[in-house]
Structures are given as structure tokens and as C-alpha cells.
Amino acid sequence: MANKGKLTVSLLIGGLLAALEPGAARAADAQENVVQPVNEWRFAIAPYFWAAGMNGDVGLFGREPVPLDMSFGDIFDDLRFGGMLVAEAHNGTWGLFGDLIYAKTESDTTITRTVAAVPTSLSATLETSSFTGTLMGEYRIYGSGTVSLDVMAGARIWSVDNDINAVVAASGVPVAEWSGSDGATWVDPMIGLKARFETATPWFFNAWGMMGTGSSDISWDVLAGAGYQWTDKVSLVAGYRALGVDYNDDGFVYDMVQHGPYTGLIFGF
Q1: Whole-angstrom Cα distance, residue 47 to residue 83?
Q2: What is the DSSP string of 167-235?
Q3: From start to end of 91-172, where are the E strands?
Q4: b or e along 54-81 (b: 16 or more beta carbons within 10 Å of the residue's beta carbon)?
Q5: Helix ranges, 126-175 (H)
Q6: CA triplet 152, 156, 159: central angle to 5 degrees?
Q7: Which helix (H) or strand (E) holds 53?
């Protein structure tokens, strides 16, 4: 559909993280923070901002999927509300990881034609709300003074809802109206790896990779970034993330890749 691909599901702007262990206060303390005593739990909360564009296909109401190619700027113009948060708990051996993303967008499109010498317009409004939630258990398979590596297993839930309202008017007078909703909620089991690399400075590097299948044909998520330990409780992080899913059921199609840079803060305690 015209005007920035207005028939869009806005899935997010979505999810960062960067913290395996939030507590490395300075470079001299790196080893102590990577290899923690068992049962000494550390916690981190990380609000973030993900400037993600979208590429893929979306199909509603059993219609032929529509290709979408939207930059983050296109999505941001339609954004009405968005929130993203990562939380993690880890005791040096076992951990728990969560990633929550919610976004709501609204886009309007009007097409005007002359039909039998009468100006006729079709106005449509699409409201899209989307939620992605990930919960993973973690087990540390390697830890040293500079490197930690965790395996992860869990699940990711997707929920996308689209509400459309269309009005046909002739010479400015409404003559017909139609509304409808289409969307889906599904769950994919996920497995993955996550790594963190310390340096002899306040800088650190982190990465993860996840993939799964279940209700969707495939779901995957990769991230790489760098962080700076600003204080013993606060880190700054930035990097790049790409997330994809291929879901098709009962006439609803969501085959999408989101990718772009992220930035955020990690609060450890």
C-alpha cells in the first residue's frame, strides 16, 4: 500500500541487552565480576532503544501477502507508544533472562479517484499493537577472568493485532464503512548462546545468538555490541541487532526481519 507501506504491522522497535554480569565496576575488578561465587546472585535491568527497520511480507484476512520495506524513520512516524526492557538474574552458574518489547502504531491512508464524474475517496486507518516476550534459562559452560559463555533455553511469545477501519465517501459524503481485525498469538521454543568479553579497561563486548521453531517455521535473533562500565552500578551499551520470524497460519502471514542499531543503559544491583 502506498505512502511508506502503510499496511504495516509495526513490530517493534525492539530489544537490546548487553549485560551478562552488570557489576564490573572497573577494569581491575573484571575477573571478580565475571567469575562470581555460586549462589551470589546479581541482577540487571536494562531499558533500551532499538532503531529497527523492517523487511518482509505481511498478509491479512487471507489476502496475498504484501511486501514491506520500511526504515526506522517510516515506523517512527506512525509510533504512538513503545517500551522495551531486558532483565537478568545470574549467580555465576545459573541465570534467568527476559526481554520484553511492546509497540503500538497508527497509520492513515486516503486514496481519491473520480468515478462517474463523482469525486470518490477511500480512507483507511490501521492500528497495530505488537508484543514480543522472551524468557530463557541460562547455564554457564565457561567462565574465566575475561570471557564468559552461557547456553540458553526457553521460549518466545509473539502477539500481533491489526484493526482496520475504512470509509468510502462520494463528494465528501460517507456512503460505506467497513472495519475488521486480524492477528495472531504464538509461541516458539528457543535455544541460544550468549558471551561477554572483558578488557583491561572499563570497555567490554557482548554477543548472543538464538533460534527456534514451533508455531512459526523459524525464529532467530542475533546481537553484537560494546559497553562501557560508567559506574559500579551503571553501564552504557550500544550495538546492532537483527531479529527474524516466519509465521503463517489461517490466512495471517508474518514473515519479517527487523534490524538496526540499539543503545541503552544497564542498571545492576
Answers
A1: 8
A2: EEEETTEEEEEEEEEEEEEEEEEEEEEEEEEE-SSSEEEEEEEEEE-SSSSEEEEEEEEEEEE-SSSEE
A3: 94-115, 118-143, 147-170
A4: bebebbbeeeeeeebebbbebbeebeee
A5: none
A6: 170
A7: strand 53-59
C-alpha cell at 181: 481485525
Q: By C-alpha distance, which of 217, 94, 219, 83 is closest to 156? A: 219
Output phi, psi for 33, to 5 deg: -85, -25
Can you say how many angstroms the Cα of residue 77 is from the centroid of all Cα atoms in its chain? Answer: 18
CA–CA gap between residue 83 and residue 14 (Å, rounded): 8
pLDDT digits 0-9 by tens, 80-130 = 888 899 999 999 899 999 999 998 888 776 667 676 666 776 666 788 889
Interatomic CA distance for residues 102 and 48, integer angstroms: 12
Residue with cell string 532503544: 49
| Burial (0-12, 13-18, 19+ Cβ within 10 Å), 166 | middle
pLDDT digits 0-9 by tens, 226-254: 999 999 999 999 999 999 999 999 889 99
Q: Which three cell numbers, joined as nine digits, stand for 96?
A: 534467568
Better-predicted residue by pLDDT, 144 or 38? 144
Q: Structure pTM?
A: 0.78
